[in-house]
Amino acid sequence: MSTPLRTRVARVVAATAAAALLLPAATAVAGPRPAPAEHGGGGPAAHHGAHPGTHPGTYLAPSLAGRATLSADFLADGPPSGADATPANGRTGPWDGQVIPGFSAMVDNHDGTFWAQPDNGFGAQGNSADFLLRSYLVRPHWDTGRRGSGRIEVLDHIAYNDRDHVLDFDIVHEDTPDRLLTGADLDIESLVRAPDGTLWVGDEFGPFLLHFAADGTLLEKPYPFPDGKSPANPYLEPGETPDVGSSRGFEAMAGIGRYLYPVVEGALADDGDARRRWVYQFDTRRGEYTGRRWAYQTDQVANVIGDAFATGRDSMLVIERDDFEGDQAVTKRVYEIDLSERDRDGYVRKELVLDALRVANPRRIDAGEGYGLGDTFSLPVQSFETVLFVDRDTLLVGNDNNYPGNDARVPGTPDDTEMALVDLRRTRVADDGVTVVGHRGASGYRPEHTLAAYETAIAQCADYIEPDVVSTQDGVLVARHENEISGTTDVADHPEFADRRTTKTIDGTAVTGWFTEDFTLAELRTLRAKERLPQVRPQNTAFDGLYQVPTLDEVLDLARHSRTCDGAPVGVYPETKHPTYFDSVGLSLEGPLVRELRRNGFDHRHAPVIIQSFEVGNLRELNRLTDVPLAQLVSSIGAPYDLEAAGDPRTYADLVTRDGLREIARYADGIGAEKDVLIPRNADGTLGRPTAVLRDAHRVGLDVHAWTFRRENQFLPAEFRSSSDPDEVGDLVGEIRVFLDAGLDGLFSDNPDLGARAAE
């Protein structure tokens, strides 16, 4: 079968378009320094519409260049703080000084120092009255793996204040001369320095735009958000409904020329699309919003926007993140968006610049000091909230540690504040010739058919991710192994759905449980995924109850915004589940599937997509509807259900005869065969000799992929088992290599990291 993913020329993120407009860096990275630009990014030198980072056959490979940390328990000078903070990780306030709970925004001074701004303190208006709003002058002493202490030095600070009595609502220090602002007054999250040295700050309580002098004094009244208020807005009228979610205001803001571009962190309350985030334009000269805004779509509903940084007149970096931390984290990404380019749904174009969960760490900087610190550097913190270019090839990323609550690195220990330098170097796209498919994602490590499983598969070097596709009652395609969901979700724990438990006949077999076609998407969204094989993979049960059932659209979005370890676009390998059954209940899969592929730009013959099915008729129909490659799935027993239902006597064994394979080649591009069809096992459980199926399939132009390779002993041939314990891990790499030596083109594995290793 055609595997266009492996040969398709990769589009490269245009991050290096910043080359001519980024400010001089205070790092040891070699290279010419471009001229300064306004507002930290988009001044007169900015390229308009140019993408010099895009080169055929190359991609931007990230690697860790330096890291520096500030102890979570560091206290700056000032009055005690945290009297009302929620105790966590062995820390209870108040603390004898001002806590620095990480940084939510940062400005490069281009002399080795940065102004770094924490947020409102301890997470809420009600517990942050003793936290003073400040911006700290810091100097990171980068640990590069060769030199540097890895320490963040705190040099000075400015205190945000309203000493000129600009505000017309009461503040905590209302009657003091300096009127220092606190986390109970405003929630400052984003920061842009204007050419005149004044500071523009994005707030979440209003949300407001705040204009401060360089010394931190408020210069003018807050500019209110034109499209609503948050629950903490001091001007909220009694009975008025907030349109902005709590703590979902201006977490991110970029500055380009005279304009600010604040980004709403979450969806607006009245927005029917929960994945939409809005980028607004504010004119600093006129002191007003221009009325222009742009729609950005997150990878999934719960994701939020963490920071923004201008890279050109129409472009900026945006952090998109989830609220998980440690090994639960799924999305900690930096995308570049282009306000001048929109996709077919009206959203701004976005391209991946950095997946902060997978950064090469060749010098093993701080390896072994916590989760995500090893051969691969990961920033698995909950609040990934700082990104900026320090030169044309290097990003600086950092975190808000939500002191004392976050413990992503070492459970039970508060996270330090981190700053990391990530080099983005152009590398050629590679091809090892073997297609590795993350079976239902990396289902050996995360509950199957979740975005966490798919993201893990991508991080483990899968070339394709595989969603099994079923339909909801309202015709939305979602990823589940079966339409019966009691084994893969917590539906049985929802008493409101108890009456939907029923028995149905699926492909001739009576099945009792709960079925996707009896739920709307909104109802299905209230459920959470769980591990399907808890006896075999008890470690995966730690993730039970965390992740939603993803739509096919979300899976396609994740793939099209990702890159494989080789730098190629990530492919999608959807399987249509029980198509004859879904036809019988008026929820045919073929049309909706093709429409979703088309809407996401995947419906063409060179797209990295392969559609698979155990049935024959729907593949023939799909062959008429789409140009993407198709794969006939083949089991070692039984027959395609549609043939069985029609009285056709052919079995799967008939399909893999020479004549059968020639017939498959008329409507499909390959087969996905159960392993035993290709290399059966001997009576003692060891691998036998390869059958003629591989040879015969190749002779008629069909590629051959095999399923399913799993690492536990019970799934392995006898010679590759490690013990008599069926759930212990055996030698999966050894088994896969036997199949590859026999001529296999690709493989489905619950453990794509081991599949990728076998293909090396």
From TrEMBL:
PROSITE patterns: GP_PDE. Its EC number is 3.1.4.46. The keyword Hydrolase applies. Keywords: Glycerol metabolism, Hydrolase, Signal. Residues 434-759 form the GP-PDE domain. Residues 45-57 have a biased composition (Low complexity). InterPro entries: GP_PDE_dom, Phytase-like_dom, PLC-like_Pdiesterase_TIM-brl. It catalyses: a sn-glycero-3-phosphodiester + H2O = an alcohol + sn-glycerol 3-phosphate + H(+). GO terms for cellular component: periplasmic space. Residues 1-30 form the signal peptide. This is glycerophosphodiester phosphodiesterase. It comes from Promicromonospora citrea.
